[in-house]
Design brief:
Layout: H1 2-7, E1 15-17, H2 20-24, H3 26-31, E2 38-42, H4 47-55, E3 66-69, E4 76-78, H5 83-90, E5 110-111, E6 117-121, E7 124-125, E8 147-148, H6 151-165, E9 169-172, H7 181-193, H8 196-199, E10 201-204, H9 208-213, H10 216-224, E11 227-230, E12 248-249
Parallel strand pairs: 1-2, 6-9, 9-10, 10-11
Antiparallel strand pairs: 2-3, 3-4, 5-6, 7-8, 11-12
This protein binds iron/sulfur cluster.
Length: about 250
Amino acid sequence: MSARIAAVLDPQIALMAGGHHAKAMPDRILADPRMANVRALILGEAEPRVVALLEDERRRAELPGVMWRDPLLGTHAAGIPRQSTATALLALDVNTLPLVNRAFLPQDPYTAPDGRIEANIVGSRGCPYNCTFCGAAVSANPDVTIRVRRPESIIEELHALHDEHGVTAFRFVDDLFLGAGRVITEQMAAFTRHGTGDRFVWDATGRINVLDRLTDSELDHLVANGLREVARVRSPGRNRSTKPGVLVRANG
Ligand code: SF4
């Protein structure tokens, strides 16, 4: 679909592209004649590199994980980073980011089938596991560290979405939000302090081996804090991940 759109754009328009396909098959994308105007194919988390490219397209030569097709040679080129900046550009500190500007996300928040206004949110990036089918697997992302947002920052976003949009249900679409016991403990302590379970419900990505290690009272604590579902399932008419997972109806 992206290639079809790219093919009919004014050739003067320079394109940046990214996402899962960029990560999985960059050479195939750059070889596609419909993508001839892609000046930068960005692999992985893009925020700081997009800023750099918008400032000066020529900076692509020094950016890690940025590829393009040389129009003269027809070969694929890639940025060569200075070692000192590579990590910050590939795995930025998520606690330095502002809250997502939803003005550019017309489908989020949205009204869920149960009538609640629901929003997607990200509480962490990266995953320590290595499922062979998954683009987030640790072996596929050797330069990316696992980063977790401060609980207070997550709470701030929940409340802002409620105050501005009436959101009462949240979907943590992290690679793996419920990914480690000590992180869950810290996050849930903050959720309890702020009475999150009294106001909101939320769904999250999780892994059965992590949940299996939690005690019954820790699982109860998750539910008391609003956890409704641990899942990655396809919902008809909604663009959710098709990644296999476990559906655990916690309540409701
Ligand atoms: S499927 Fe989930 S647990 Fe497995 S590597 Fe991907 S994000 Fe991690």
